[in-house]
Amino acid sequence: xxxxxxxxxxxxxxxxxxxxxxxxxxxxxxxxxxxxxxxxxxxxxxxxxxxxxxxxxxxxxxxxxxxxxxxxxxxxxxxxxxxxxxxxxxxxxxxxxxxxxxxxxxxxxxxxxxxxxxxxxxxxxxxxxxxxxxxxxxxxxxxxxxxxxxxxxxxxxxxxxxxxxxxxxxxxxxxxxxxxxxxxxxxxxxxxxxxxxxxxxxxxxxxxxxxxxxxxxxxxxxxxxxxxxxxxxxxxxxxxxxxxxxxxxxxxxxxxxxxxxxxxxxx
Length: 267
Hints:
The protein is an alpha/beta fold. It has helices spanning 2-21, 53-61, 87-100, 114-124, 146-149, 185-188, 196-199, 221-229, 243-246, 248-257; strands at residues 38-42, 65-67, 106-111, 129-135, 160-161, 164-165, 182-183, 203-209, 233-238. The chain has one domain (37-260): Alpha/Beta hydrolase fold, catalytic domain (Rossmann fold, 3-Layer(aba) Sandwich), CATH 3.40.50. The protein has a six-stranded parallel β-sheet with strand order 2-1-3-4-8-9, with helices on both faces.
């Protein structure tokens, strides 16, 4: 009987070891010993921090700290919407999160319109930032507005009503959360990008591509070229424009790897 019990115990230990060894590592699961970062993620136009809920969950599960604030007048802060909300308002939103939460070594992430916001944040508090990641995002030069980066002559603008940029799709009958109209001034106010310290920050520009699409075929190829001119690391990812919805695990894997990127000397 003792021999039988010992054999059963040995088999149990072996099967437990096998079970532990064969647990698969999924995309977005950081391997043991990976560094833990503090992410501040800025959503795109019409959106809200709610759009990055799954990305937050995956990053947090990997041991990172994540902040995904919603910009004034959008998402759960729609009750603060006003035609007077401008780009500076949104830059202040993020700068104040960093300052009042006393964040340092931040991985600053901006998606789409969020690229305008994080550019202004880089200019204001570069000493608090470790790395910047532009996700298929606006990448303005100093003094440019969103409309300067994406002129209406090349990129048809959504309709404007009562000082707000309306959504390019119907949302009235959709359940909350959903996109909401955004103040026009957030797209017309130019950004400041003058701080020499901001221009030295390590940065990564990510261009989303459809399967088999080449970089030069994207309408945002000029942003890829601008990133190269700045000496930033450029990456691609197969996704539609909202990878946080369609490819969250792949996006998290990229967000965890990109902070290792370093700027290249600008000739």
